[in-house]
Structure formats: structure tokens, C-alpha cells
Amino acid sequence: MQQVTTNAYRQDALWRYIITGCGLALIVLTLSIGAFLCYKGVGTFTTYNHSIAEFLFSADWAPSDSAEGGGSVGAAIFIFGSVITCALALAIATPFSLATAIFMTEISPELGKRFVQPAGEIFVGIPSVVYGWIGLTILVPLIKNIFNLRFGFSVLAAGIVLAVMIFPTITSLAADALRSIPKSYRAVSYGLGATRWQTIAKVVVPAAVTGLILGLARAFGEALAVAMVIGKMRAFPTSLLSPTNNLTAAIAADMGGAMEGSEYNIALWTMALMLFIISLACIFAIHFLTAKGGKQA
């Protein structure tokens, strides 16, 4: 009996060490990626002496493809393109995602668990290139014909494709957040005389903010599908029907052709560092909102 207990203890200890090691490895990997991006990305400001203001607010993008530098690294067009396409995608996806999450958790949980959730999970497994190809062959010509444009590549096309891609992410995370709300919160709301829809709007829906933030983080990081429909024009869009470019599409298109160690290559690494910082900001925002909500509770 003592031998069995000793073996069980050793197995528990072994698995505890393995799980702890995996967790620590994930932390080390994340820190290593961040450190590497910082090492490569800050060269734009330290090695080539460009200012942060130039990188963020200038539209003059002409970095030198040599190690001597001397070019300009204004990434404002790419930054604005990322912001406007992600904002549009979030505006399109949010109502549908929240409505689906509310239906799955508050209106018809059984039906949502059996049919709606598995249907949404199918979207998660579809590769980005499939979304981009459908957008390129169906959505872009459709926008061109409806609005009588010369080309259908536009911010609108990129926003719609991104909205479809982040829809399952926001829906799944929002549904998990809604399920985590204690039933006592709903009971208190009903006890104070609130209706079902007032309870959903005032008590339930605010918990879904974390899903929106993570959906936004994914939208910022998406490259291939957006690059196929946004037009990749180096200009500020004048409307939602104008083509433009964004950070991820620019990195994906130019990184392979930029000489290693050149000003061009380092500038692309700086854009990658910016995307990493945006992702970290989204994660910190989620933790802040979660901690704030816990204190209020």
C-alpha cells in the first residue's frame, strides 16, 4: 500500500514538474519574442537615427535598401490603414457576435450549445487564405459592380473580410464571459425589478468586452487575407471604397525582398514591433478591465 502511494506521489510530482515547465517555457518564449522584436525594431531609431514622430506621423515611406540608410520611414499610411480596417471590422462584427453570444447563453443555451457553437467553431478552422480568396473572387467584384468602381479593392472589402474572420473569436470569448457571470447577479437584477432585456443589457453584456478586445487584437495581426483585398496602395484612403495598405500587408509583401540588415529591413521589423506592442496593450487592457470588474463585484 505504501509502495502504491509512493508511486502515485512520484507520478503527481512528475506531471506537476512537466506542466510547470511547459508554463515557464511559454513565458520564456513570449519574452524571447518580445526581446528579439525590440532588438531588431529599435534599430530604426538607434542605428539610423529616425525619430518616433517621423515613423508614426509621416507618410513619406522610402527606406533605403542598404545598410547606410538615408531614406525615410514614415509609416503613417500603414498605421492608419490598420486602424481604419480594424475599426470597421469591429463595427461590423460586434453586433452579430454579441447577438449570437447572447442567444447561446441567455435565450436558448441548449440550442446554442448543440448547433450554434459548433457552427461558429467551423469558422475558426478555416485558413486565412480561404477567406482572402473568397474575398478576392466574390467580394471584390461585387463591391466593384455595386458601387460602379474601377477596382473593388478597398477598405470596405478588407473590413468585411476581417469582420468575418474575427466573428467566431468574439462570439466564443463573449459567450464564455457571459457564462462566467454568477447567477446571483441576474437574480439581484430581477429582484430590483429589471426586465430580462434590461438585465442582459446592463448586467450581462458588459462582461463581453474582453471578447471584443481580443477580436481587435486578432484583426490587427491578420495579414494574408487583408493583403489580398485591400489593394496595397500606398495612399491614405479618402473613403471606405478607396484602396490603401496596412502594417501586416506591408510586412508580408516586403519582408522577403528587403536585404537583411538594411534600413528597409529594420523599418519592417519596427512595424512588427509595433504590432507586438498593440497586442500587449490589448492583453493589458483585458486584465485591467477584468480586475476592475472583480473589484466592483
Structure annotation, total helices: 13
Tell the overall outline. Answer: globular
Widest β-sheet, arrangement of strands: 1-2
Order of helices and strands: HHHEEHHHHHHHHHH
Q: Mean of the pLDDT scores? A: 86
C-alpha Rg (nearest Å): 23 Å
State the secondary-structure class: mainly alpha
Notable features of this structure?
297 residues; mainly alpha; 13 helices; 74% helix
Word description of this protein:
With 297 residues, this protein is mainly α. The mean pLDDT is 86. The N and C termini lie far apart (47 Å). Helix content is 74%, strand content 1%. The chain is globular. The chain has a two-stranded antiparallel ribbon.
Write the layout of secondary structure elements.
Layout: H1 2-41, H2 43-46, H3 52-57, E1 61-62, E2 72-73, H4 76-107, H5 109-124, H6 128-146, H7 155-179, H8 183-191, H9 196-204, H10 209-221, H11 224-229, H12 247-254, H13 263-296
Antiparallel strand pairs: 1-2
Helix pairs in contact: 1-13, 4-5, 4-7, 4-10, 5-7, 6-7, 7-10, 8-9, 10-13, 12-13
